Structures are given as C-alpha cells and as structure tokens.
Amino acid sequence: MPDPARKILHVDMDAFYASVEQRDDPSLRGRPVVVAWRGARSVVCAASYEARRFGVRSAMPAIRAERLCPQAVFVPPDFTRYKAVSRHVREIFARHTDLIEPLSLDEAYLDVSVTKTGLSTATATAQAIREAIREETHLTASAGVASNKFLAKIASDWRKPDGIFVIRPHQVEAFLAPLPVGRLPGVGKVMEQKLEELGIATVSDLRTLGAAGLEARFGRWGRRLHELSLGIDHNPVEPERPTLQISSEDTFERDLHLDELESHIARLAEKTWEGYGRELARDPDRLARTVVLKLKTADFRILTRSLTPSERPTSLEQLVRIACELRARVPLPAGTRYRLVGVGLSGFIDREGIPAAQSDLFGEPFEPHRVEPHAATP
Questions:
Q1: Is the overall model pTM greater than 0.90, yes or no?
Q2: For helices 16-24 and 79-94, angle between their N-to-C axes, nearest 10 degrees
Q3: Alpha helices in 172-236 (DSSP H)
Q4: Which of 17, 124, 168, 371 is deepest in the core (most CB within 10 A)?
Q5: What gap in Å lies between CA 299 and CA 171, rounded to an integer?
Q6: Is the dihedral of CA 231, 233, 237, 241 positive or negative?
C-alpha cells in the first residue's frame, strides 16, 4: 500500500511561459498567446489557456497552431526571463524543504514529510507555496498532494489552472480505478494499444490481471504496472539528479544533405561544450566520455549515433571532430535530407570510479578556452 507517512507535492506553474508574457505585457491579458517563433519549422513552446481552447498545445508545429487559432498573438520565447522567474519560485520552495526535484523550469516535486516551517499538513504547505508564488511573482501555480510522486503529478493536473488537489492514502485505489491506463507513468501509445488488445482500458481493468498475469505478459514491467495500478511508488524525491546528457540541437530553415552539416555541427558542439563547462564548474568530478550525434530526416525519422573513444573528449576541437566523423555511421542513402541536427555529451562517470589503470586517460584537465570559437567552425 502507499506509505501514508510520505507527503509529496508536485507544483506546476500554469501555462508558464505564456503567463509570464501576459504578466509583463498587459495588452496580452485575456488574449490567445502562443509562445513560439513563426515559421514552418517552429514549434509551440507554450500556449495560454485562451489559446488552448482552440486546441493549441505545447510541442505542436507553430504553423498548425496558427491554423487552429488565426487570431493568436505569437510571442518569441525569452528564456532569460523564464529562468529568472523559475529561480524565484525555487527559492520559495526552499523556504519549506531542501528535498526539491526540479523537472523543468516550471514544475518540481517536493518532499514535505518534514518541513522547515512546521506547518501541520502537506496541504497547508502546498497552499502557502501557491500563495507566495501569487504574491511575489504575480503568477499562479497548481499543486498536487499525495503520498508519492506519480500520484502527486496526476493530482496537480486535476484542478488546473490555479488549483490544488489532495489524494489521501485511503482514497488512492478508488481514485485510480476509473482512470485510463494511459494516465499511469510509462504507459505510452504502444503499451496502451497492447493493453487495449487484452480488453484493458482503465486502471480497474488492469488490476483484474493481477501481478502474476501482468508479469507473465510483460515481465518486470508487468509487475511495475500492477504496483502503479494500486498507487504504489517508492521512488524518492531526488534533489541532485546526476546529469545524464548535455546537448544542443537546431532545426534548419531548409532540409540539408549530410555533407552540408559540418558548420552546423561545429556551432552546436560549441554550445554543448559551454554547457559542459558549466556542469564541470558545478561538479568537477563528473566527466563525460561519449559523443552523441542526433539527426532528424525530412520525413521526421530520428537517428542517433554515438562513440565512446579510448580517451574522453577534453577540448572543443575533439568534440567537433568526433561528431562530424559520426556522420559516416549513418546508414541512410546519400540523397537523404535532414531537418535537424544535435550534438551531445553523455556517458558521465565519477572521477573516483575510474580504475587506476585508466587514470592517465582522464588526467588531462578540462580546458574550456583551449580552442577559440572561430577555430571550431570550418
């Protein structure tokens, strides 16, 4: 059963980017605002609730959003402002607990089983946080309160915008029973289709198969599905999640051939290298070993190619060279055109976990200014 002693919040800012734009520009209030660059290659970063009534959603192609809502006001994103507001919101969280797990600029999990403020309930803490956000940022946030992370996330969406919803431990099974199985974390469209073929549409239907039946069909994931159907999730709030990948990507104005990508790879590698420098400044003992090249074809097929060299990349020049060389591993015809390219660093390892025999491979210090930016561009 869910652990009643745990008190978890999921706090989610309402239509965050669009709300910041409406706050800072009174002429936008009450109007359908779409945060996106105009153009065939742009996607929607955020949509105000006025725009959502027309079916506009985040990650939708901007051109489709314009067709759905011709009267929408398109505003280019300003991430500098959004990050500043996000920092302020996290400062408000930190007044109540140090156990904060940010998911993005606009949402986070908080473990408030024990708080700094001494408020008597998790609901009171959630309400205090929402009130502080409203007073100090002039924005609204919704909150979910539950005994674990996945329930809290479902709850935060229940009374959006500007709402709070509490799922108490004794209510969990009844609350989950009528929900579509797609509301469970990890159940995507493919899994949803497989379950539908078994006659399973709701969480209640899922329970009828039992742990053994689900495990027989789906292995360990089946047992996890059974636990989720009962509201069981022991994953803790993790304030310091280790970095898994640092990357930069870009969509082109026109589709390009593979041999036209070198300058774009160099430009994106430079941005990734700068991000890696910031990560190392925060945690000098986490070292990246793997270079990743991501491509998206004109027909939206996504490919990734990666290489873990015998010596980790220690300069921008090396990152550019390896990323460009990875193009040779792309198995598509020479005439294929690409709409997006990305360059990343992954395979992070703790310096102290490197075997002594390999220490010479990791002894060279990170040198963010070893290669001047113009030298990396062919």
A1: no
A2: 110
A3: 172-176, 189-197, 203-218, 220-229
A4: 17
A5: 46
A6: negative
Residue 144 is encoded by which pair of tokens? 């979910």
- CA gap 5, 14 in Å, rounded: 28
Q: Residue 113's closest CA among 105, 121, 103?
A: 121
Do the beta carbons of residue 358 and residue 369 sit within 8 Å?
Answer: no
Could you give the maximum distance between any two Cα atoms of the chain, in Å? Answer: 65
C-alpha span between 335 and 183 (Å, rounded): 41
Q: Report whether 49 contacts 55 (CB < 8 A).
A: no
| Closest-CA residue to 187 (of 215, 148, 225, 231) | 225
Residues acting as catalytic residues: 107
pLDDT in tens, the chain (378 residues): 555 688 999 999 999 999 999 999 999 999 999 999 877 778 898 999 999 999 999 888 899 999 999 999 999 999 889 989 999 999 999 999 999 999 888 999 999 999 999 898 999 999 999 999 999 999 999 999 999 999 999 999 999 999 999 999 999 999 999 999 999 988 888 788 889 998 999 999 999 988 999 998 888 888 999 999 999 999 999 886 677 889 999 888 889 999 999 999 999 999 999 888 888 877 777 889 999 999 999 888 899 999 999 888 889 999 999 999 999 999 999 899 999 999 999 998 876 555 433 333 333 333 333 333 333 332
Q: How many CA atoms lie within 13 A of 234 on its CB side?
A: 3
Q: Of 281, 263, 278, 257, nearest to 343 (Cα)?
A: 263
User: Which stretches does DSSP call E strand in the chain?
Assistant: 8-13, 33-35, 46-47, 73-75, 100-104, 107-111, 141-146, 164-166, 245-257, 286-287, 290-297, 302-307, 337-346, 349-350
